[in-house]
Amino acid sequence: MLSAKSLFQEILDDDESFALFCSIAAGGESQGGWENGRIAALVPESEHGLAPKITRHGADEDKHGRIFNALMKKRGLDPVPVPPETDYTMLLERHGIGLSHEKLKGEERLTVQDIVTYLAHSRVTEQRASEQMDLLRRHFADHPDVGRAVKMISNDEDNHLAYCHEELLRFARAGHGRAIQRTLRECALAEIRIYRDVSLAVMDHMGRILGWSRTRSAVLAAGIHAVYAYERLAGWRRMVSLRMPERRDALGGPAASAPEFA
User: Fold this and answer.
1) Using CB atoms within 10 A of its CB, is residue 231 exposed (0-12), middle (13-18) or buried (19+)?
2) In whole angstroms, what separates CA 157 from the centre of its chain?
3) At what angle do helices 112-140 and 147-171 cross, to 10 degrees?
4) CB 3.0–4.6 Å: which of 3, 129, 147, 155 could bond 143 by disulfide?
5) Chain CA centroid to CA 45, Å
6) HEC string for 39-62
7) How far is CA 2 from CA 11, 13, 172, 217, in A?
8) pLDDT at residue 186 in the model
């Protein structure tokens, strides 16, 4: 039976596919860590109090990158080059989602609107990350090799999503509501398209590594297109709603350290 659990188990069991999966994940998390670090350094004076939370967000992303690298090291595997068509974070940036790297590499202070854009982008992408990690947690929380990592990363992603909701609601109350909704919608519609393209690329690479039949690859591709069709029709709306989270001040403290993998 073809299921999310059986699919990931197959990827997990093969060294080459597992190295590719972890390398893609580690690269994306590390990139997110750098972006958040630069945003924290350039935050406008009026939002100085937000800088520690942005720093914590970046520290969590860096930690996740180290965790994925540690999982590879535990198996005696080295990171592998990430195919550009599978690089989710760079493709988002290339399509103008979030703050440009050119801006983040400079020294000019960001504007409040830049921070609103950053938070809206993060609210959309953290929704995706939270859902993906929740899926892995449900199926692999007790796995002897990846269970601890999955639970820690999943908890962090839920914190990140809660933080985005809370901060965006604060900015909405300050008069940025229309800009927030417009940016959220633009980000969500772009993200679902890029997520579809990246998913197809990742499955194509995994299929070649694992020797999937044309029929199986076609079924998986059809499933990815079906998810995109649903998200394009209505599913994107879950990425743009805002509600006060149960987890308040979710990024108010220091980042937890990464677990050791013996």
Assistant:
1) buried
2) 8
3) 150
4) 147
5) 28
6) HHHHCCHHHHHHHHHHHHHHHHHH
7) 13, 16, 43, 11
8) 96
Residue-wise pLDDT tens digits, 81-100: 999 999 999 999 999 899 99
Exposure letters 17-48 (e unless 16+ CB within 10 A, then b): bbbbbbbbbbbbbbbbbbbbbbbbebbeeebe
| Beta carbons within 8 Å of 46's beta carbon, 6+ residues apart | 112
Q: In whole angstroms, what is the distance from residue 200 CA to residue 248 CA?
A: 36
Burial class (CB in 10 A: 0-12, 13-18, 19+), 212: middle
Q: Is 254 exposed, middle or buried (0-12, 13-18, 19+ CB in 10 A)?
A: exposed
Question: Widest CA span of the chain, in angstroms?
Answer: 57
- Please, are residues 26 and 81 in contact by the beta-carbon 8 Å criterion? no
Is the dihedral angle over the CA atoms 93, 98, 100, 106 positive or is it negative? negative
φ/ψ of residue 245, rounded to 5: -75, 155
Q: What angle do CA 142, 198, 59 make, to 5 degrees?
A: 55
Distance of CA 84 to the CA centre of its chain: 16
3 state DSSP class of 141? coil
Question: What are 131-190's pLDDT values in tens digits?
Answer: 999 999 999 999 988 999 999 999 999 999 999 999 999 999 999 999 999 999 999 999
Would you say how long the chain is, in residues? Answer: 262
